[in-house]
From TrEMBL:
A matching Pfam family: Bac_luciferase
Gene Ontology terms for molecular function: oxidoreductase activity, acting on paired donors, with incorporation or reduction of molecular oxygen
Alphabetic keyword roster: Oxidoreductase
EC number: 1.-.-.-
Top-level taxon of origin: Bacteria
UniProt protein name: TIGR03564 family F420-dependent LLM class oxidoreductase
Length: 314
């Protein structure tokens, strides 16, 4: 059980060079005692490439993506990128993917979003074939992945682990059957246990796969100015209130807005909630948006997370 942090593309772009900033943040994460750094994906810098670069520079860290939307991307391309990042990071890269949202798929890429779960199943089927064997032979209803030449990357070992940002029942079933785990976000500990851990474990068991990794993402900030941090959370997280998949788990968690799930307070408050997620079945806790209330609180948060990461857990 480990604790890491997630960095937003906006955070990296608030610098002279996004990749240099990622490496600098990675060094700070190592100094704080954190285990992993994860990079979000929008339409700018490529998070797979950024993660691989940070992994090469900092051999102490696991690096990953949280997450790469599969809409507008082909598994052949993503497999090549992921294997290159794995070789670059010498085996410490994890690929996080998700279906993404309707707005991005239809407005940005001009593609339909009618069957996201079917697309996810075919995408993961081809992706895992590529990562395991270096080729694929998928002729699905939506996707074709049949490269005429080998698609493996020398040095991309061990096989790239794949986590899916799955929260709905259908997506969790697919993730349990075809992926190595999940990256859920905007959920409370009780919802994690009942609506994420139980169904994905059951799906993996039925498919004869190992117990999945549950890397839960949590917005958290250690601060003395709770009111200011809460206001920032309300502003930055309002987007999720309108996304159906998030809307469901937000409501299951017993709140009305995404920002209410942000963990904001002193060290004791944040540490207690992180412990609750581990008790609910998380194998990893990845803390996001630690810079909500400025750099001083981000560093304070990272110090706490590093201390918690160093403590043994049953």
């Amino acid at each position: 059980m480990t604790i890491g942090i997630a960095l937003s593309p906006f955070t990296l772009n608030n610098s002279d060079n996004a990749v240099d900033a990622a490496v600098a943040f990675g060094r700070e994460a190592v100094a704080a005692g954190l285990s992993s750094v994860w990079f979000g994906q929008l339409f700018g810098q490529d998070s797979i490439a950024v993660a691989g670069t940070v992994g090469r520079e900092l051999p102490e860290l696991e690096v990953g993506t949280s997450v790469v939307p599969i809409g507008g991307r082909h598994p052949l391309v993503v497999a090549g990128q992921a294997q290159t990042a794995q070789a670059t990071a010498h085996g410490r890269f994890t690929l996080g993917v998700g279906t993404g949202g309707r707005a991005a798929a239809e407005s940005a890429f001009g593609i339909t979003f009618d069957r996201p779960i079917a697309y996810l199943r075919e995408f993961l089927t081809a992706l895992q074939q590529l990562l395991e064997t270096g080729t694929a032979d998928l002729h699905g209803e939506i996707l074709t992945a049949a490269p005429p030449f080998p698609a493996d990357v020398a040095g991309a070992r061990p096989r790239v682990p794949v986590l899916v940002a799955a929260m709905g029942p259908q997506a969790l079933r697919v993730a349990g059957e075809l992926a190595d785990g999940t990256l859920p976000y905007l959920i409370g500990p009780q919802v994690l246990a009942k609506h994420i851990v139980e169904p994905i474990n059951a799906a993996a068991e039925r498919a004869g796969r190992p117990r999945p990794r549950i890397a839960v993402m949590v917005t958290a900030v250690v601060t003395s100015d709770v009111e200011a941090a809460r206001a920032q959370a309300e502003q930055s997280m309002a987007f999720y209130d309108e996304v159906p998949s998030y809307r469901r788990v937000i409501e299951l968690s017993g709140v009305r807005r995404a920002a209410e799930l942000a963990v904001i307070g002193d060290e004791e408050t944040v540490a207690a909630r992180i412990a609750e997620f581990f008790d609910a079945g998380a194998t990893d806790v990845i803390v996001a948006s630690t810079d909500l209330n400025g750099d001083a609180d981000r560093l304070r948060t990272w110090r706490l997370l590093g201390e918690l990461n160093s403590k043994p857990r049953a």
